[in-house]
Amino acid sequence: MTDYSETNYLLAIETSGIASGVYISRNKEILGQVTLYQKNIHSRRLSLSVQQLLAHLDIPLKDLQAIVLSAGPGSFTGLRIGYSLAKGLAHSLNLKILEIPTLDVWAYQVGQTNLPILSFIDAHREEIYFSCYERIQDQLKRTSDYQIIALTKLPQLITGNTLISGGNLLLFQEKFRKVLGNKAIFPQVYGKQAEGWALLALGYEKFKTGDFSQVENCEPLYLRSFKGVM
Predict the structure, then answer these.
(1) Domain region containing 144
(2) Is 230 among the domain residues?
(3) Residue 6 region, left (φ>0) first, then alpha (ψ -120 to 50), else beta?
(4) What is the pLDDT of residue 40?
């Protein structure tokens, strides 16, 4: 039985979008990160980034307790590369895997808000992957399934002011305003990708409860079949 009061080092991997990110935390405290904002770099740099970050922090591979995976939806190729590396490390080092849907990360990193949240990721073809959330008793709760929807159908879903969080938000602002009008509220600050600190925070909560995935069977959350688009 793991003693969660002790020091636990977690490695997080984010490959759901264009950027490639690896992060290390001690319990819930993030210690360091390597993020590369370059397209199609996952396969060439991801493993090396993990090695460099561990070396910089002077943390041996054997001291890791678990791997936190940004589980998608998102880039089909990026997610496969992230999962491949995570499974290889988990098998060789006997590590646990914690899967965190990337839509949860986008919603979590918004922070405190009284508004409902629509978390989204670009699915192309004028569609988005999305899920809805609310803060209930200071806890972020998902209030819908993970789904894919055409932007033109959003008014059937959004009936009141809603905070929008997700990838490519700068590009999508006018699209959301066009279909939702003033109901679409945007955070003052938004990043280019799902943040490592949020991914690790959600991963640590799962780690404490022992909500681990089966290494052999875990797979990305694709939401639709691969058709060569992403």
Answers:
(1) 103-185
(2) no
(3) beta
(4) 66
